[in-house]
User: What shape does this take?
Amino acid sequence: MHWIDRVAKALLKRDKKPVIASGISVSGHIHIGHCNDIFIADGVRRALEELGGEGQAFWYADDFDPMRRIPWPLNEGELAEKYKQYLGIPYINIPSPDPNYKNFVDFFARPFIESLDDFGIDVKIYSGAEIYRSGRMAEPTRTALKHADKIRAILNRYRSKPLPEDWLPYDALCERCGRLATTRSLSWHDNYVSYKCEGSDYIAGCGYEGEADFTKGQGKLTWRVEWPARWKLLGVTCEPFGKDHAVVGGSYDTGKLIAKQVFKCNAPYPVPYEWVSLKGRWMSSSKGVVFTLPQWLEIAEPELLRYFIFRSKPMKAKEFDPGLALLDLYDEYDLVEQVHFGMVEASARRKEQFKRIYQLSQLRKTPRRRVQRVPFRFATVLAQVMRDEKYAINVLTSREMLTDPSKSDIELAFRRLSCARNWVSKYAPERLQFKVAETLPAEAVQLLSKQQKQGLTQLAADLSSRDFTPVELHNHIYELAQRVGLKTPELFKAIYLALLGRESGPRVGNFISVLDKEFVISRLREAAL
RNA sequence: GGGCCCGUAGCGCAGUCUGGCUAGCGCACCGGCCUUUUAAGCCGGGUGUCGAGGGUUCGAAUCCCUCCGGGCCCGCCA
Assistant: This one.
């Protein structure tokens, strides 16, 4: 059974309408590593529905947290100087570097949120700042303040340096300098917490002393208390979170105790997950090690990202590499799809597993009919020579990659071709990039030997006299080389020189079969002159 | 100091929760085919003390204990 289903079953045992939370701190670009959070939440919700339950999932933007570090790309050049002044200020109150966005949060979170639909994610979005401003956090905050001693005792269990006796679980927003990270709460009464802006380890305070109205969002609960408060407020019964939270004595452990003892609720069913690395480095929004959802859509179908998340267990580290490794991801996905549609044999167990992963990878409903796919490797070649869509369709049907295609098959083919084109230009190694020369390349004129020209002349003649399948054509090159007394690499080089102006290229049979035959014949003849 | 993950074929991994067919997949590799393979040629081949040891069991990659190796996270920010 897939782990998502296991979670869903466990939840249904506990209650009838599970609420699955996800969320992250908007501390920079939101990347595909963060997708674990929201994809898992949404995946569990879907599994619940399939089991006849009723799940609800949401994503919570922690946009009221103070900026501790200037994230990439704002930490470069002039921007870095400009953004220094905002250290310690809640993200939501920091301006956007780009006038097209409302503020810092909008700048970083909007591209992510707007992409969610493309990935088949359908969850409610909450903003931490809005929740605080609306006053919904007032009662949980009051409860926490009342039980500050109890909370302090819980946190102290895992601390080597105990919290001071007058500690309060609240971070006020400094009325004068707007910072949240710099204030220390001194005491509270009614709806107010009095504070002093003293500074923190990374930013100085302004010294102001004042009172914050906690019913009006003039501050927030400290993270370790805010989390269980949120569980209480939103009735959270399941939540995926990064492995950093999952450590013993970490925020989940203390949150669990605080939930029970202070908020009188149960901690959500935890689904800890490993992080995603990008070419060997952990993704990090602040450091700029990111790969975003819009970037993903440029080079791959959304199903592939879902597949990437759901194919392995959540606590297994995932590594993403948009370079050559992407080809394998495509192949793997296509294989899983073929197993799902029974086009490739697999053992019963494997089939069951693949089918479930395939279903979870789909944006919405799993297609009933077999999907026709253009292999991505082939798409990288075709995308570089196709002149228009009609041309591509012709090639694909003559190659039997599309057979009597439906409208959606054609759409999928073009989407993949467009991904391939983008991938080739942005992430592929240079050797996979080529351009068919519009006119006979000078290299061909200079470098071709008499024998090579003879080979090309003969090839042109053969091409015009009969049709070759790609494999036949490839094989034919060997025979031909023999016939004209050339070593095979010399003939291959000659072909590439004539067409591309360089000595290597895509597999010849494949390559020529996607080009216009008359064009190839005339070019080969021209090169042989 | 605490915790988590990983250890299965040359490499990357699935299978471990719920013990049970002959331990599987991809790539690589080897062999064959065509006087032959540049980025999908076809056909065939598993190359393995499932990290080690012990235990439970009719039966262990799978459960329990101990150990070894690699990686990561947390150590009081969230």
Notes: The CA atoms of residues 154 and 254 of chain A lie 7 Å apart. The longest helix of chain A spans residues 407-426. Chain A has a mean pLDDT of 90. Chain A has five domains: 3-137+223-277, 170-221, 290-361, 376-429, 442-528.
